[in-house]
Amino acid sequence: CAAPCCAHWQRSFQADVDQYVTKSMNNANPLVTVGIATFNRPESLRRALSCICQQTYSNLEIIVSDNASPGEATKRVVEDFMAKDNRLKYFCQSSNLGANANFQFVLDTASGDFFLWMSDDDWRAPSYIEKLLKELQTDDDAVLAFCDIAVLDEQGRRRHDFYATYLPYLRQFRSYKRPVRLMKFFLQDESLGKANLLYGLIRSCAIKSTSLASMCEQYGSHGLDNLIVFTLLQKGRLQLVEEMLYGVTAGNVKFYPTPESSGLKNKLAALASYMTYLLAYLRLTNGVMKGMLALLFPVKVVFSYWHIFKRKFASLS
User: Fold this and answer.
1) CB neighbourhood size of 262 (10 A)
2) Which of 67, 214, 257, 263 could form a disulfide with 39 if both were Cys (CB 3.0 to 4.6 A apart)?
3) Nearest to 42 by CA among 83, 84, 71
4) pLDDT tens, position by position, 171-214
5) Which of 180, 172, 141, 169 is nearest to 289 (CA)?
6) Residue 37 contacts by C-beta under 8 Å, 6 or more apart in sequence?
7) Do β-strands 32-38 and 60-66 pair in parallel, antiparallel, or remain unpaired?
8) pLDDT tens digits for range 270-304
């Protein structure tokens, strides 16, 4: 898809925002869609559904897309919740679509004014949606709302080998000045939690036109979550609730491919993939913004490898 910053695109998106604002003035209780793409993690899915079904904000549409999990365990977990909560909609894919296509499915199926992706192994405080929605409803310049992050193990215990808070890094994307938030997002190291913004609460009019398949085809799958967030920040600012309402699980089983780090061939492939990812930021912009990012490109590369060196040195100490 074309870079989302041409005049036509801006006018089209502004029209969507204006329509949303008019609609929301007459709707203090808008529908929020929660899209859960899941595969073969029935117990963590049970926890995720508990987090969502117990939200203090009740006007929810909860879409679960089962990516052809083996056996019946995943289906039984969802059916247990559906028996008690009619907000759930369950879709079982006939074959495994792949993670990106499954994420796209829940987005395409959503009908809410606001949208939220939820991983099947993450955590949400009961007030998560209510507090994030309040921030978006009171700030027309924001397209995305999020909060502080807790990194947890599979049992929900804090991981002390991660940052105690991510707020100092997330605050950088709240600027009303588009170039400022885009440059800060581009320069910020990928280890500082910015990819988790993908799991924030998003205005549907800002995300509905997103095609993960198209983005993968053009830019590759490396850092796709960051690239999606970057396109959102082109449309509006981040609104931030300065409470720890979101928990991400680290160190558990992942059902998607991860790059091999050993061997010269794999290292060169990883380097090429990373450079393609960085160049995607330039391709997603044009005009003055493209020139600014191009000037910052060597700075980003140096910063990236400095952070990689620091992390490897810290792991050896």
Assistant:
1) 7
2) 67
3) 71
4) 999 999 999 999 999 999 999 999 999 999 999 999 999 999 99
5) 180
6) 65, 67, 99, 102, 103, 105, 106, 117, 119, 120
7) parallel
8) 788 899 999 999 999 999 999 999 999 999 999 88
